[in-house]
């Protein structure tokens, strides 16, 4: 469920474009006005505004904002549609220097549905003229690479139906894969986690606990490690409760010494039009205070205002 508050139906993309142009003129941009307009326009409206802006002023709005509003990463990311945005995040993460931003790569790929993955792979190809699976193959290694390449390549079922016999079979296979006498069976982990639906994996998690008395997540931590384990856990957590997964990620981004701005921006901007209301509810349940209160206390200026407007009301 989205938290985005959009303007009345009478809002004109041409008028918005004119107001944005006026706000971007002069020595100092009216950042508050720019934020107030764009933070309350959905993906389709933002696209129409950008078309109107370029038609009227012979310049892409994204280019003008990038030039005039230095460092406003959240706003620039927001201008893109969801699929292009995911493609941009992954591309930047894969090409970051001096090392790949594995956190961003893992989070985007492992938390997306099969249909979202198919579509942002197309966006990646059209934007960068490169296949995502080939780029993952070049930049990653080991079981981490094998899992992610399989995860974006294999077509998975997205519906709610379950095969209970297969659920029990997979739970047994996962238990056997951790046999200390023969070592962890990574191929089994990759196969199950890349081929099964989220509904199925959530059921496997319940069956595993019921059959063996140990949470599947705990068992995975005893079997795998490093980047491979991180991907397995994201897939499992998003299968069981994606809202709680993102609530915990936001908590990690906010707490401690300094705010993890990159991750905070990534989650809020990419989830606002999908399920941010559920994430806010999960955050409140888990941590006892509204997400907006935590964001307000750890950010400042127009950056804070923009994120808070995306988050919307607490009620």
TrEMBL record:
What Pfam families is this protein classified in? Annexin
Matching SUPFAM superfamilies, A to Z? Answer: Annexin
Keywords in UniProt for this one? Annexin, Calcium, Calcium/phospholipid-binding, Repeat
Q: Which family does it belong to?
A: Belongs to the annexin family.
Instruction: Quote the entry's note on domains.
Output: A pair of annexin repeats may form one binding site for calcium and phospholipid.
- Could you tell me which InterPro entries the record lists for this protein? Annexin, Annexin_repeat, Annexin_repeat_CS, Annexin_sf
Q: Does the keyword NAD apply?
A: no
Name-wise, this protein is Annexin
Q: Which is one Gene Ontology cellular component term of this protein?
A: cytoplasm
Organism classification: Eukaryota, Viridiplantae, Streptophyta, Embryophyta, Tracheophyta
Q: Which GO terms describe its molecular function?
A: calcium ion binding; calcium-dependent phospholipid binding; phosphatidylserine binding
Alphabetical list of SMART domains matching this protein: ANX
BP GO terms, sorted: response to cold; response to heat; response to salt stress; response to water deprivation
């Amino acid at each position: 469920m989205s938290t985005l508050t959009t303007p009345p139906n009478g809002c004109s993309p041409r008028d918005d474009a004119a107001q944005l142009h006026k706000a971007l003129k002069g020595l100092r941009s009216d950042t508050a006005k720019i934020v107030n307009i764009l933070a309350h326009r959905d993906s389709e409206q933002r696209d129409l505004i950008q078309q109107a802006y370029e038609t009227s002023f012979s310049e892409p709005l994204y280019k003008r904002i990038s030039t005039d509003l230095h460092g406003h990463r959240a706003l620039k990311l927001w201008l893109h549609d969801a699929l292009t945005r995911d493609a941009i995040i992954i591309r930047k993460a894969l090409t970051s220097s001096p090392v790949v931003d594995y956190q961003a790569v893992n989070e985007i790929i492992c938390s997306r549905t099969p249909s979202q993955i198919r579509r942002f792979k197309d966006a990646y190809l059209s934007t960068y003229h490169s296949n995502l699976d080939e780029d993952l193959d070049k930049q990653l290694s080991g079981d981490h690479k094998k899992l992610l390449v399989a995860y974006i390549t294999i077509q998975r079922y997205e519906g709610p139906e379950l095969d209970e016999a297969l659920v029990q079979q997979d739970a047994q296979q996962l238990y056997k894969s951790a046999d200390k006498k023969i070592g962890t069976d990574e191929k089994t982990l990759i196969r199950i986690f890349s081929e099964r639906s989220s509904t199925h994996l959530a059921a496997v998690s319940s069956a595993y606990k019921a059959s063996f008395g140990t949470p599947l997540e705990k068992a995975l931590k005893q079997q795998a490690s490093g980047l491979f384990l991180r991907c397995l856990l994201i897939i499992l957590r998003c299968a069981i409760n994606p809202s709680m997964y993102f609530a915990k990620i936001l908590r990690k981004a906010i707490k401690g010494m300094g705010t993890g701005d990159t991750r905070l921006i990534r989650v809020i901007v990419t989830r606002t039009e999908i399920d941010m209301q559920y994430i806010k509810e999960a955050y409140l349940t888990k941590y006892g205070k509204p997400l907006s209160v935590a964001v307000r206390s750890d950010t400042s200026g127009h950056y804070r205002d923009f994120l808070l407007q995306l988050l919307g009301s607490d009620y």
